[in-house]
């Protein structure tokens, strides 16, 4: 299913320029003394890591982001980026450790929760994902949107379909600008699993209206066609 999509260029503070999430409200969030205290040399290494990560040069990105952490051990954004790099390198245990380290520095910082949630989703750890989502639900509006999304994913795979439907609907309500059209596809699949083809079709139409990804559009159309075929075969 389509994943939560990042904005092309998130309008957030510098430290979040490389995270793969849409965090439009981070600029207005309280900036901790820990984040303000990042030395210039550590930030320079982080920026080099960011550039390498965007170019998919993972070995280079890991080298520079570790350099940033060596220069400032409480560099949360660097720990989060390290988690993302390690995940792409298929070093899942190390990625968990990096994301958890960022969380231990400041439990009010949203990106480490999203870092861990992405790992748990990738590993199909649905019960753990549900537990983690509950931890950052209520932190802020952006966090709530992601928390409800991950709760919906977890409930869907645990086959708690009414709860999945509720969570997906809550996530959509927190996304009035339609930054995350994948939510509509997720809700369509939830309706589809419940045999509600009409509502599934309505959500697919919303998804097709707001997504720009051709591959995802094709997948949604294929899913809807299969759902309609199954209904006719009954």
Please characterize this protein's 3D structure:
There is one protein chain. The protein is an all-alpha fold and 234 residues long. 68% of the residues lie in helices and 0% in strands. Residues 3-13 and 27-33 have low confidence and may be disordered.
> Strand percentage, roughly?
under 5%
The counted number of beta strands is 0
On the 0-100 scale, what is the average pLDDT? 87
- The rounded distance between the terminal residues' Cα atoms is 25 Å
Radius of gyration: 19 Å
The H/E string reads HHHHHHHHHHHH
Q: What structural class do helix, strand and pairing data support?
A: mainly alpha
Number of helices: 12
Judging from the principal axes of the Cα atoms, what is the shape?
elongated
Low-pLDDT windows of residues: 3-13, 27-33
Largest sheet: none
Q: Give the oligomer, counting copies of the same chain as homo and different chains as hetero.
A: single chain
- The helix content, as a percent range, equals 55-70%
